[in-house]
Structure formats: structure tokens, C-alpha cells
Amino acid sequence: MDAAHCYLEGNADAVEFCPHEPYANLLAASTYTLQEGDCPSRSGSVYLFDVGDVEDVCLNLIQKIDTAGVFDIRWSRGGDGGGNVALAQADADGCLRVYKIDETEVKGFSLREVSGEKISSSMCLCLDWDPSSTSIVVGLSDGSASVVTFTDSNLETVQEWKGHDFELWTASFDLNNPNLVYTGSDDCKFSCWDIRDSPADNRVFQNSKVHTMGVCCISPNPSDPYSLFTGSYDETLRVWDTRSVSRPVNETSVSLGGGVWRIKHHPSLTGVVLAACMHNGFAIAKVSDGKGEVMESYNKHESLAYGADWYRGKDQKRSVVATCSFYDRLLRLWMPKTDLST
């Protein structure tokens, strides 16, 4: 069921619900627009919306921040609401930026940049926070990855290594062992690195045979420490068993009919995921007992499906989804028609 929609002023590529109370009603969205010509430029914006509550969902624009073209945004994993909730941004200028939430009686909620650092001459394509939200891994357009610490609002690069031959579209910390970082790239390789000392010399594994096209999404399963999901341009959602850390096993594969750019786990239903499938809209899939199926497809966007996320507030009487698409600049809020708990 459609609940609300709006058009952004640039090409929409990411949406993220804040996972922390009392900010669960806040939705961040980002854009990336390439201005071609003699002097090409990459511009973008970060938007902050208030979506209300699940009984009366809306899109109330609170703030728009103009910046360089944004490839990825992520809310911090840890946060007690006391000013520690942060939103990180990876952009086309090679910068990593971090915002925190301000709250005033007059203006309500807003984002304030607390740190920004140019970490590379290449573009920053993706990012992920470690479980304690004190480090950020960033994937770069030259195939490198960087680990940047975030302490006292300061960003400092502590590791950088060339892990792939082409663009590194996805990077993720292991949720249970923050010394491990997973990466995926246009070179079709899915890799894991031990970042305690010289990651380039401490590759835990590299799988180059399973994905037949570029790897664009890696999403550890928050309810199973030995399971993670990958998405690829080859239109397949894959589930991996990582109990043998040096030789993960691809135990389940689900064809989604479009390049799997984003995978988001449902906040309360194990095995239920939301996927952005590029040329084939959005899909909700369920994986259990080694089998996977598509529960619902959503095709009300007119362009590349890139951004997707679940509402993560305490009130889970119904599931609420945010999705965005690129060239039509469309942001939508909707509720799945399917009973996802069955």
C-alpha cells in the first residue's frame, strides 16, 4: 500500500531510516547528479525527513544539505540518543563526512556536520560502521578500501589497502568480529580481510568463482553470526555460511530479475530481506531452511532501483518501507501487502 512520495532535486541513490530511539521517525536520503560538459561536476544533497508514525506515515522535509555527489549514507550502529547518533556520508570528492543530530525547541531535529575528511583522490563509493560505531570502512573507486576511526568527532585513516582491480562497490564489517571486513567489487570478487595488521597481507578469503558479475552488496545477517547475504549485477541474492571463515559456502541463491544493489534485513523477522533490484524494482524475499522465495515485488518506480530500507521504530504493528530510484528522482514510502510473518 502506497503511503507517501516526493521528488528530490537530484538523482536519488540511498535512503536510511534512523535505527535509534527517539529518532526512529527520521529518514535520510541522498542524491548524486553528474553535470557533464567541459567542466564536469558531481553534485548531491542529503535530505532529512520526518515520516511521522506507522499509523499516519508522511514525508515532511526537515532539512536539505547541498554537498558533493553522494554515493552512500549510513546511520551509526551504536547510539544512546545522547548526541551519539551519527550519519556518515561517502562522496564523489573522496571525502568522508559525519553528521550528528541537533534538537532545538524552535527548529526541532536537524543534522550538523561534525567532521569531514578527504581520505582519497579516488571517489568514496560505499561505507559501513563497525558494531561499536568507532570505525568506518570505506570502499573506493580505484579498488582500495580504507578504515577510518571516528573518535571525539575526529576522523583518522588507520588502514588503506588495494583489495580489488576495479570499483569497490560494497564493504562491510563482520557484526561479531570487528577485525574482519568484507569487500565486493566490479572484478566479481567477494573477499574478507583481517584489519588488525596490514590487511593486504592478511586476506582471509577471496571468492572469484561464484558471482558471475560484479558484487555490489554485502549484508551480514544480524540474527545469525555465521550468515551473510550478497547481491550482484548477476541478478542473484546469495546466502553464505561463514562458519568456516576461510572457505564460506554459498548455501542458498535466489534470482531477483535485476542487479541486486541493496539488501536490508527486516528489523524483527529473521530471514526476511528487502532488496533494491536496479532494473527490476524492489523485492521482499524470505530465506529459511536453505530455501529462498520472493514474497512480494514492488515496481512503482520508473528508473533504477537503488535505495531501500525498513522503518526500525519500536512500533512494528506493520512494516513500512522507504525506496528511491535514480533518474526519476522518486522517493516512496509504502507498506507491503503480504503478511511477512507467515
From TrEMBL:
WD repeats lie at residues 208-244. Pathway: Protein modification. Pfam families: WD40. GO terms for biological process: protein histidyl modification to diphthamide. SMART domains: WD40. One of its GO terms (molecular function) is diphthine methylesterase activity. GO terms for cellular component: cytoplasm. Keywords: Repeat, WD repeat. It comes from the Eukaryota. PROSITE patterns: WD_REPEATS_1 (PS00678), WD_REPEATS_2 (PS50082). PANTHER family: DIPHTHINE METHYLTRANSFERASE. This is WD40-repeat-containing domain superfamily.
